[in-house]
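Hi support team,

I'm opening this ticket because the web form for multi-chain structure prediction keeps timing out on my end. I have pasted the exact lines I submitted so you can reproduce it. The total is 317 residues across two entries, so I didn't expect it to be a heavy job. Is there a limit I'm missing, or should I split the entries? Thanks in advance, R.K.
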Amino acid sequence: MNMERWILVGIIAISILAIFLFVPRKKAREAWVLFLSLQIITWPAGLLAVEWKMIDYPIQLFSFANEFNRSSFTFEFFLFPVTAIIFSLYFPKKFRKIGTFFYYFLFAGFFTCLEVIIERHTELVDYQSWHGSYTLISVMVTLFINHTYYNWFKKELKGTEI
Amino acid sequence: MNKELVILLLSWIVCLFLLIKFIPKEKKRYFQIIFLFAHATAWIFQLIQVNMKLVSFPYREFEQATKMSFSLYYLVLPTFAVFFILYYPEKKNWIRVWIHYLIFSNGMHLYMFLVERSSDLVHDIDWHWWFAVSIDLIVLYLVKKFAFWFRKGFK
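Hello R.K., no limit was hit. The queue was backed up. Here is the completed structure from your submission:
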């Protein structure tokens, strides 16, 4: 197995570990809401980016994956949803506008840095007409939409305080 | 406009209309989460079937990006799942429950079958009726398990 696949396995393992560490059992339903609603956004958006030849993922976890689907499983359906879960569950309530903005910036920045490093040094991601700043902005917008939906949804869920 | 596009447009309009019209307003969160869960599940099962070369989708919304169908599994199948739970015979005996499962799993496949026959959206390579219906049954069962667990968390 080459270096790239080990990175993917590592990302998936860390994502699963993060769920166990950061999602309390009584928050399971909220985590499901965040995980599933994010996919409704990333699924078409990820396909669109590949379809318009903006981004490509030359190496996927399974070698046959690109034969059937060229959008990234690991990033869009694992790392990003898990990031979104932690983002919303630990969203600071007391911050003012500027603090909230930094909170968004922090998460999207982390995600972007990771992707840019991976893009430069491995064959996992290949930016065609894509740019790191697009990731930064699209991740922030997506997190915002997802968090807004989550806030609306949890109004009718019980026991939502950590 | 070709017939594939007409079928897709009609499917979108009919599904959205049915969802908006029949989902009880006070339970919209519950049915939305069912829709979302069904989408995530159906999508994995679609991948398995495409991978096994049982079925292919010659006419696709995302021609280059994927070999899979988008709308059929993003919208149509989750809509079936939502109505499956909406009319689930909860306090009835097991025969009535089985009939319910069979109606919906066959209904889903009937839709796919009709689309297959009338357009290039779905192409049946080696897609046995029993296999497709079994997969639909598994999806419906998972959706039901998830839905009944999730609803315990509502106020």
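A quick check on our side: Chain A has a mean pLDDT of 88. Let us know if the file doesn't open in your viewer.
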